[in-house]
Design brief:
By secondary structure, the chain is of the alpha+beta class. The longest helix is centred in the middle third of the chain and has 25 residues, at 169-193. Helices cover 52% and strands 13% of the residues. The strands form three sheets. Strands 1-2-3-5-4 form a five-stranded antiparallel sheet, with no helix packed on it. A two-stranded antiparallel ribbon has the order 6-9. A two-stranded antiparallel ribbon has the order 7-8. The radius of gyration is 22 Å and the shape is globular. The chain has 13 helices and nine strands. It has two domains: 2-97, Phosphorylase Kinase, domain 1 (2-Layer Sandwich); 109-341, Aminoglycoside 3'-phosphotransferase, Chain: A, domain 2 (Alpha-Beta Complex), CATH 3.90.1200. The protein starts with a helix and ends with a helix.
Length: 342
């Protein structure tokens, strides 16, 4: 609370042509924060950005590109001097309009298809985006093999450590039992990613441009009363092939479902293809990215590095068990994946 009170909100908001009635904090960490700003013209959203100024410039330029190509993102408010943000003591603040609506649900066929269609539109609209030379873009394009290999071997070292312990606890026992299965699946995925399909898709995006949201999910979408779909939380936009977003969204949908479902996957692919059709070889890359056990390795990483300080041992244990069981339901889907994309 002391840190929040030190934020120069009044000064920042004085740089805009707005009449402030009230400010309410939504979330706060020292390097980033979100506030609802009630003005005479309605609500606005003020964000303290954790990215560097050069990365913020890249994100804003990407947002304008997407908006110019038909994607609905809450409008960034201009300052009195025409700027896109206010900089105070090295920190940047962005004021945007507040969108009205509700989060869609994966449970209804109509809203499920709205989410998938909007992702396809997002990827289509991101084509021809080129980061300006004076900005610092986030880029994952072409880095998968190196990043995934490093992550796998990092967790392999923890597995070996637990394997050589006399007592490793219940979590350690689960890791010792399950890790070899996921390690082999990750190795198979990495072998596939070293083929021509991934390389070709990367080269294609290098030429035509492409953005990924990185957290494209129902929680970051709003269905307005008029039927428009607004995309929120664009702070993590990165340059990469669409497979990154597809894999993340599919994992979210299937986790909500409780397990992987071939019928849901088929509906996803068919819906996506109507707006931004991918080639057979590109869907093969999606399959390889799904094969790599991102969730299981992520749960291991979270536990071994104690990344969530509020979690106790029992919560880590529960999460690892849940994710392990969920990831294993993918196996029959992988076996039938090629039939879905022919």
């Amino acid at each position: 609370m002391v840190a929040i009170s030190k934020e120069p909100l009044e000064y920042v908001l004085s740089k805009y042509n707005i009449d402030v009635i009230k400010i309410r904090n939504e979330s706060y960490k020292e390097k980033k924060g979100v506030w609802w700003v009630h003005t005479l013209d309605g609500f606005k959203v003020l964000k303290k950005i954790s990215n560097s100024e050069d990365t913020l410039k890249y994100i804003i330029s990407a947002v304008y590109h997407l908006c110019n190509n038909g994607i609905k993102i809450p409008a960034i408010n201009k300052t009195k001097d025409g700027g896109d943000y206010v900089k105070v003591d090295g920190c940047c603040y962005v004021l945007s309009d507040a969108a009205k609506g509700k989060n869609p649900s994966y449970k209804t066929d109509k809203e499920f298809k709205i989410v998938v269609t909007e992702l396809a539109k997002f990827h289509k609209a991101s084509e021809n985006f080129c980061p300006a030379p004076d900005t610092k873009p986030k880029v994952h394009l072409g880095k998968w093999i190196e990043e995934y290999s490093k992550r796998l071997e990092d967790m392999n070292n923890f597995y070996k450590r637990d394997l050589n312990k006399n007592q490793s606890g219940e979590i350690g026992e689960i890791i010792i039992k399950e890790f070899p299965f996921f390690y082999n699946r990750a190795k198979e995925a990495l072998t596939g990613l070293k083929g021509e399909e991934y390389k070709t898709w990367v080269e294609k995006v290098e030429k035509i441009g492409g953005l990924c949201h990185q957290d494209f999910a129902a929680g970051n979408l709003l269905l307005s009363p008029t039927g428009e779909v607004f995309i929120l939380d664009t702070d993590s936009l990165t340059v990469d092939i669409p497979a990154r977003d597809i894999r993340k969204l599919l994992n979210k949908i299937m986790r909500k479902n409780g397990k992987w479902c071939i019928e849901l996957l088929k509906s996803f692919i068919d819906t996506y293809q109507l707006t931004n059709p991918l080639s057979y070889s590109e869907w093969k890359v999606v399959k390889l990215d799904l094969m790599y056990p991102h969730l299981f390795l992520g749960a291991m990483n979270k536990y071994y590095y104690q990344r969530d300080k509020e979690w106790g041992y029992d919560k880590y244990l529960k999460k690892i068990k849940e994710i392990c069981d969920f990831e294993k339901t993918l196996s029959p889907v992988l076996n039938n994946f090629d039939l879905l994309i022919k």
